[in-house]
Amino acid sequence: MKILVIDDEDSKCRLYKEELEEAGYDVITATTGAKGMDLFRAESPDLVTLDINMSSNDEGILLLRQMKQINPKVPIFLLTAYDFRDSFEVWCADEYIVKSSDLSELKSKIKATISSAGA
Question: N or C, which end of the chain has less CB nearby within 10 Å?
């Protein structure tokens, strides 16, 4: 399974890449929305994790909308430092995860998404 990680913090991209590769996933990363969109089109990832609050406040939302228009079947997980789950649900993300150095919630939701897709 190929996962695209988009986060404007390079340290977060490296952390997610290392942890998810250890869990057996192929991981590609982008630190800008433009690079993320290029990789989304070129690499056809199976799942995307997307920082909601990138360089501009609405960049993550715009990326989410564009990606869902291009391929609505690709699960997109929103990652954020803020816990406002109710307001994020309307943006058509498949999952919403509050950022943490402990990636167990993210890994668990990825595994659940894979299981439900294969069912």
Answer: C
- According to DSSP, residue 5 is labeled E
Q: Are the CB atoms for 46 and 91 separated by under 8 Å? A: no
The CATH label, of 3.40.50.300, 3.40.50.720, 3.30.420.40, 3.40.50.2300, for the domain at 2-110 is: 3.40.50.2300
Domain residue extents for the chain: 2-110
Residues with Cβ within 8 Å of 24's Cβ and at least 6 positions away in sequence, in order, are none
Which amino acid makes up residue 37?
M
How does pLDDT run across 24-61, given as a tens digit for each residue? 999 999 999 999 999 999 999 999 999 988 777 678 88
pTM listed for this prediction: 0.88
Question: What CA–CA distances, in Å, run from 19 to 37, 62, 63, 74, 101?
Answer: 23, 27, 24, 21, 10
The helix (run of H) or strand (run of E) holding residue 50 is strand 47-51
Give pLDDT, residue 83: 61
Q: Identify the DSSP state of 14.
A: H
